[in-house]
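[Automated response] Your request has been received and processed.

Submitted sequence:
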Amino acid sequence: MTVSYDYAGRSVLVTGGTKGIGAGIATAFLAAGADVVVCARKNPGELPSAGGRTASFVAADVRDADQVAALADTVIERHGRLDVVINNAGGSPYAMAATAPPRLHARIIELNLIAPLHVAQAAYNVMKDGGSIVMIGSVSGVRPSPGTAAYGAAKAGLHHLAACLAAEWAPLVRVNSLVVGLVDAGEDQAGHYGGPEALAEVKATIPAGRMALPADVARACLYLGAESYVTGSTLTIDGGGELPAWNYIVQREK
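Generated structure:
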């Protein structure tokens, strides 16, 4: 069975939509007929495209509330409406909590929690006909996240923020979150995990047998962006979770 969506005449904003998961999400909405605006601090030159259509770009630092307000106004100027916002911008370097500079912790929380709140607030103020906001969360916010403690704490807050906004803004604007697991976003995954053997061991902890692809996350965004009764919900995209280390050790020893 194939599920298709028609977003013709709809306007979609994807923060951090120029690469990785964000670019995959933007591409899916373009393929569904939406007018898509992506933002990032710098224009990468090559923007997401599908079906002969290309996303438009706005330079914006989503940590800056004034730039976020201008971003929402720009979307309205270009397309006359804003129907869906995908709060995707985020991330964190690896940094142990005991030694990371306090300023780094503050910037990580600002990017992954405060910035999505700014974006959601600006979007709500221009969504006169209602709309949908999707927070791109992480499994780091629902289980221990050693090495990225501030990031995990921010994502936990983001999941809760989505539920709070959903309650405040219903029924006009729906707000949901995705708990996203390990994703193969096209970067050097083997290098990130310490080499091909380590990467294979990481993938072995995922019941689905592979990492998620940006397209997997994008399909969930298409569903949550479409008009429905669903709000205040958290949808997990993790391939069945991460098997505990003891399970992998037992299987390896058999």
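Summary generated for your ticket: The beta strands are 11-15, 35-40, 49-50, 53-54, 56-59, 84-87, 131-138, 173-180, 234-237. The two ends are 38 Å apart (CA to CA).
If you did not submit this request, please reply to this message.
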